[in-house]
Amino acid sequence: MNISLFDLFYLLCGLAIFLYGMQQGEKILKRLGGSDLRRILKVITRHRLSAWFAGLVTTLITQSSSATTVVLVSLASARMMSFGQSLGMILGSDLGTTVTVQLFAFKFDQIAPLLIAAGFFISMCRSSEKISGYGKLILALGFIFFGMSIMAEAVMPLRSYPAFESIMQASLNNQWYGLLAGTVITAVIQSSAATLALLIALAENYSLTGDWVPSAAHLFPIILGANLGTCITAFISTLRADIEGVRVAWAHFLFKFAGVLIFFPLLGFFNLFDRIFVGSAAFQTAALHTFFNLFISFLFLPFTGFFERIILFMIKPGSKVIERFQLSYLHDSIISLPVLALSQAVREIEGMSEKVKLMLNKSWRLIEKFDLNNKRELIESDDEVDFLHENIIAFLTRMAGEELINETASRSYELIMITTDLEHIGDIISKSIVPLTEKIYDSPVPLSAEGKREILEFLDRIIINFEDALVAFASNDPIRARIVLNRKHEIKTIYNQMFDRHMSRLYKNKAQSLQTTSIHVDLLEEICRINHFTTRITAGCLKSDFNNR
Questions:
Q1: Which of 80, 91, 244, 449 has its CA 20 to 30 A from that of 310?
Q2: Ordered alpha helix ranges (H), 476-516
Q3: In terms of domains, do 230 and 344 share one?
Q4: Residue 4 has what DSSP assignment?
Q5: 119 and 265 in one domain?
């Protein structure tokens, strides 16, 4: 029987459905499981064994160690976990991914149509976005196994193709060719599970014809290559990662490479253990794949500290131009994890708000006593606030390119508004209050002692209100947020009282009040504007659902 173009397209169709299922499953889990993943991160800081278990569980859900490793690269790049913490998770994820192959070996793919149908109808649920998301997750899982089933059928006719037959014979009979074939195929399709599904289908076809039955010694080199080739996905993800992410990718590779170095020289002895690895080609492939990853987990987990030191020695920071200002928590690699990305954005905004708070305190001291150094520091601080505003807004805007659930999209918009309000407060201080204090310094007639005291007392109230707004934002405190909002009328009343007292001094013909009236009124108005943006920040906090954080 000659191979047709249809057979090739059928194989590519199965691969496309499989990879699409992987891609959609990963995307949906990032949207639904961000909060859960953050809780897992808190657990893994305790012990390497808990990190290993977290990696195992995460990959059992995603059905892809590559997806888990890519997430780890993103989290390490964003400083949401340390490189050392990721090592245990890598080993756990490598073992978790073997479940996919085991399920396929036991013909789990036969219920793929049921998973697709059930997932589709559950995803149509409009009453709960979360239930709909779980339906899409089941649908994606169905696609994974349905794609594997199609690939298994598609490779059957390939055996009649002489060139393919010779390649398979070489790969199964020559250890080096087998290792190379497994590595290259997995690197191209970026899934060890897909490679091993093809291997199972072809090996079983050999078994059915009865002319030759591949043994563990024939299958294991390709399995080793598939484990090595899966590392390419993590390396691709480091194109946008910083040094911590690069180290995670190298750790994944070194664990696999060290395992291959241990087992490859021993392949000649595997014929002696055929009685151990008995059963169908599917069972042997799944068992060997699990055995390899279980072995490297038990071998390397006690020595993750040693591997960490090796990789830290190998991958050192390169020389970089030190930028004037830097972001602390945001990195493009976590944009594809919306819930975690928003959490990091909140942390960056909290840092920005602390800088604005420092500017308010410095402006108080500048009104009390003008100082050129203090003025320069305020201008410098505003430049940093502008830098943070620009980059936080850009980050949140890039997030809009992802498929966000309504709740996440709404939260992203609110954070943009809060960041903009903080930047407005910084501008009021640097572009309005600082020039006014300079006018006071240059004026031949200083502010009256009574007028200066009133302005400083008013600014004191605004600073306290701003601090309470920051606490409400950072700690999800709706009671404090409402207190800040309720003070708006009170502060407006105080402003009017101070304005009236100033005008009263004018009517009494106080020379100081007459000559400095413009500066005095302008300062009161600018301080009042700061409170306007402070209450807007708090109003934004009350509308937000802080559960995402």
A1: 80
A2: 478-507, 511-515
A3: no
A4: -
A5: yes
**The pLDDT of residue 252 is above 70:** yes
pLDDT at 423 over 90: yes
How many CA atoms are closer than 13 Å to the CA of 362, on its beta-carbon side? 22
Is residue 319 in a domain?
Answer: no
Q: What is the structure's pLDDT at 334?
A: 73
Token pair belonging to 309: 């030191």
Domain range holding 358? Answer: 335-548
Query: Tokens 């193709």 map to which residue?
Result: 161
Please tell me what DSSP assigns to residue 431.
I
Q: Give the rounded percent of residues in the chain with a pLDDT score beyond 90.
A: 11
CA distance 393 to 370: 34
Select from 73, 66, 52, 44 the least CA-distant residue to 247: 73
Query: How many domains, in total, are found in the chain?
Result: 2
pTM of the model: 0.61
Tens of pLDDT, residues 488-503: 888 888 888 888 887 7
Residue reference for tokens 């199964």: 172
Q: Does a structural domain hold residue 327? A: no
- Residue 1 counted as domain residue: no
Residue 79, classed as helix, strand or coil, is coil
List the structure tokens of 385. 């606030």
Show the tokens assigned to 125: 């649920």
Angle at 99 between CA 278 and CA 93, to 5 degrees: 125
Who contacts 74 (Cβ-Cβ below 8 Å, separation ≥6)?
A: 237, 241, 245, 331, 333, 334, 336, 337
Rounded CA gap, 183 and 221, in Å?
A: 10
CA distance 76 to 334: 10
DSSP 429: I
CA pair distance 544, 343, nearest whole angstrom:
13
> What's the CA gap between 384 and 326, in Å, rounded?
9
Closest alpha carbon to 384 in 438, 345, 435, 326:
326
Task: Give the model's pLDDT for residue 320.
Answer: 46
- Quick check: 78 pLDDT over 70? no
Contact residues for 504 (Cβ-Cβ < 8 A; gap 6+): none
**Is the domain of 261 the same as that of 201?**
yes
Residue 437's φ and ψ, nearest 5 degrees, are -65, -35
**pLDDT (tens digit per residue) in 25-36:** 766 666 655 555
CA distance linking residue 216 with residue 271, whole number of Å: 7
CA angle 321, 327, 329 (to 5 degrees): 130
Say whether both 486 and 527 belong to one domain: yes
